[in-house]
Amino acid sequence: VELSDVEIPEDFEIMTALEVGMRALVLFGIYLRSCTVTPRKEIVQWFENNDLWRLLSPNEMEFMKAETVTKQQLINFSWHVERLHVLSWALGISSELLSPIDQWTANEFERALLPLNAHTAKRFISSVKLRDESEIFSVAEEIENYNWQARNVDIRGGDTEVPVDREITQERHHAINWILW
């Protein structure tokens, strides 16, 4: 789909660059907790320094504040990196979205943000910009299409038009829907 062919419906709102940037910081903290050996104490301090606690869902809050977590919690929250991928792309940190079968690593986001301190997060937030709305909407349609293909395979069997990983597309769909609420 050419961007000029994309019609943006009138009944949606788009999150601001600041909102997307702040949510990306939260997802990065979840990534650090679920996918790295970063000490929990450092992540907690970083959340406090950057007023991020108020932005977590109740489940995310429970996961981030828990002294110990289960292996299943780590697995479940590690999938949030795919949400961070979409937000990272929307902010222009990632130049493109990976295919719907390729898991993303947060390397690009880490380079944009580390070291983990309040100054770096504030600099990051002050510099974020969103891609053009029509580009975001076009990608939203693409992600939704992949997600429906994966769901139809689950329901009806068969194959998708292109290889699609259900978990990846589900997480990316969640993120793009959050941006376009």
Overview of the molecule:
- With 181 residues, the chain is an all-alpha fold.
- The protein has helices at 17-35, 40-49, 58-65, 71-78, 80-90, 107-113, 118-127, 133-156, 166-179.
Question: What is the topology?
Answer:
Layout: H1 17-35, H2 40-49, H3 58-65, H4 71-78, H5 80-90, H6 107-113, H7 118-127, H8 133-156, H9 166-179
Helix pairs in contact: 1-2, 1-4, 1-5, 1-7, 5-9, 8-9
Quote the beta fraction: under 5%
What gyration radius follows from the Cα positions, in whole Å? 17 Å
Low-confidence stretches: 1-8
Q: List the quaternary state of the chains.
A: single chain
> What distance lies between the first and last C-alpha atoms, to the nearest angstrom?
22 Å
Mean pLDDT: 88
Tally of individual helices:
9
The major beta sheet can be summarized as: none
Helix content: 55-70%
Number of strand segments: 0
Structural class: mainly alpha
Order of helices and strands: HHHHHHHHH
Rough outline: globular
Keywords:
181 residues, mainly alpha, 9 helices, 61% helix
Quick gist of this model?
With 181 residues, this protein is mainly alpha-helical. The protein contains 9 helices and no strands.
